[in-house]
Amino acid sequence: xxxxxxxxxxxxxxxxxxxxxxxxxxxxxxxxxxxxxxxxxxxxxxxxxxxxxxxxxxxxxxxxxxxxxxxxxxxxxxxxxxxxxxxxxxxxxxxxxxxxxxxxxxxxxxxxxxxxxxxxxxxxxxxxxxxxxxxxxxxxxxxxxxxxxxxxxxxxxxxxxxxxxxxxxxxxxxxxxxxxxxxxxxxxxxxxxxxxxxxxxxxxxxxxxxxxx
Length: 213
Ligand SMILES: Nc1ncnc2c1ncn2[C@@H]1O[C@H](COP(=O)(O)OP(=O)(O)OP(=O)(O)O)[C@@H](O)[C@H]1O
Ligand SMILES: [Mg+2]
Prior knowledge:
The chain is an alpha/beta fold. The chain has two domains: 1-75 and 153-213, Rossmann fold (3-Layer(aba) Sandwich); 85-146, no CATH class. Helix content is 30%, strand content 30%. The chain has helices spanning 53-61, 92-102, 107-120, 136-148, 166-181, and strands spanning 5-18, 25-38, 42-46, 68-73, 77-80, 154-158, 185-189, 201-206, 209-212. The strands form two sheets. A six-stranded mixed β-sheet has the order 5-6-7-3-8-9. Strand 1 and strand 2 form a beta hairpin. The longest helix is centred in the last third of the chain and has 16 residues, at 166-181. The site of adenosine-5'-triphosphate has 13 residues, from strand 1, strand 2 and helix 1.
């Protein structure tokens, strides 16, 4: 039974403008999108390419300004973007240090969290590697670990498993379910119908609105 809500969006509106006048075009992406995620829920966000899933997620985390509507969340937030936000010249460990600083974690808390995530995602041996030396899947593991290391109350995952091999993919879903069962509220962009059974609820984004189905 899900607990109270940890993330809510109401009537979110977003329009992009492209090109210069007189050929300036407006692209209405979100036209009153609403959704909510409660404690202990694993909620899917689906929709065609270009339907606005990543735009909505960026608005939910506060990386992108909305043109209308309200967004609210409770507790710490973790965000795993579609394009990993990592730096080629920094090592895996340096990323953990940087993010731990941003999350205001002390050394003990960081080492405990990082040790557990490196073991869970099985990439301990890459701690000293620079990102430019990592495979795509390992980069994605780092992207996910960075979103999880501060044990957020709300977790937003934008296609976090692209590039994962099958074993990692299965482990990823186990990790998500374990965290959901421990009370985390998770919103995940997902394309694969086979994942439907793992999700508590699904929102479909179309014509700028999110419809639960
Ligand atoms: N910074 C931007 N400037 C202009 N248009 C943008 C910008 N970001 C996104 N868009 C447009 O907004 C629409 C929604 O893009 P978005 O990336 O949110 O879709 P998506 O549902 O995440 O797609 P995908 O499944 O391919 O990841 C697209 O038409 C895209 O071209
Ligand atoms: Mg996207």
